[in-house]
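--- STAGE predict ---
source: upstream dedup step, 1 unique chain passed
mode: sequence only
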Amino acid sequence: MLKLLPLILLFAYLAAMWFFSAWRLKRDLDENSTPLNHPRLNRVLAELGQAMDLPPVKAHIYEVEPVNGLAAPDGRIFLTRGFIRKLDACEVTPEELGSVIAHELGHVAHGHSRRRMIDFAGQNAIRLALSTILGRFIPGLGAWIANIVATAVSARLSRQDEFEADRFASALMIKAGYGTEPQKSLFRKLDRMSGTARGTTPAWLLSHPPARKRIAAIQNHETRWSRE
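--- STAGE serialize ---
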């Protein structure tokens, strides 16, 4: 039993991190969001729902300024206030925001949101374990190396999820009658809007794939689907 104690403690740590992260995120979203009821988006929400043989999609506005979308672990979909401001300023179209909502629905459909919370806890466990081991051999650098490794692993998993959610969004946007052009045109704007166009972060540490790769993947899916 004593031999299993470190493993039991690790799983207990992962569970505690998951529940704490989920609780903190839910509290923040509950306190800082309102139901999305925008006259330019209601039609899109209705048509996305109709494409899935469901009622209109429900979404919320997360009252923060960075341009982003979010799928919460409980299945709720959020657009940030910053994204809504871009819509009101006519910098993005309702159809482009519809592609964001479809993308977040993809995360929900594939269970990414819950898995990311677990990945986050696992990332911390990897960081802790590597820091302890490497710190014995490389004092002062062990923690830094452990952080890089844990971040790279997490980023790779996240990029895979993004491509999967993009594929779901493409299929849904096509079925809803919008096609994939709103999705691709938004990606062409995203780097500029989010302020990442001139970022210096290495590609293998990015949590989201570059926009050009996401557009290329969407075009490849369209070509393959047209042949089937």
